Amino acid sequence: MIITIDGPAGSGKSAVALQLAKRLGIRHLDTGSMYRAVALDALENNITGDPQAVVRRCGQITLDFDWSFNPAHILLNQRDVTQDIRRQEVTQNTYVSADNPQVREFLVKRQREIGRQCGSLVSEGRDQGTVVFPDADCKFFLVADVNQRAQRRMRQLAQMNIAADEKQIAAEIAARDLRDRSRQVGPLLEAPDAHVVDTTHHSLDEVVQTMMNFIQAEKKS
User: Is the pLDDT score of 220 beyond 80?
Assistant: First the structure.
């Protein structure tokens, strides 16, 4: 069973995907962490301004997940970079990988490999239901108010002891939305057969239960 969850930054994808995977007893794949890992590698190698160099690096690095952790830890060349990829500098440079068509091609291939290896998966990102797993058993697209999404991001940063300005975070999220939806390859779009779920005024448990209801209905149909 493949379940896809797409949506903009801060819509609640990661928290929801983790809980949904737990309820279903299957693995959770955070594809955004893969783009972050490539961006981190580009930063560390000082090649963020050279798209082709970033592409070449994709042929030289390995991206794996340590499933013994929940959520799974991401390994860049066997190095655990789970915390490093959440730095603000990486967030601001994720476009280096996400907006690069050849990098996206590389990562889409890797994500499909992981899907085949796992068999069942809750996969979250921006193009999971439209590009990576177009034949997924059940697809979701999460949405939420920009201000609510900024507040969620602030809470995440606070947990990592990272100070940030909420207005700046909201502006960055809005800019990222525009960039994600304008991307030529793998843009942020609702799949025609995706269930759209607004998480703005709902708790995590409420959202997960709504999605479980859809999944159970899909199984019966």
Answer: no
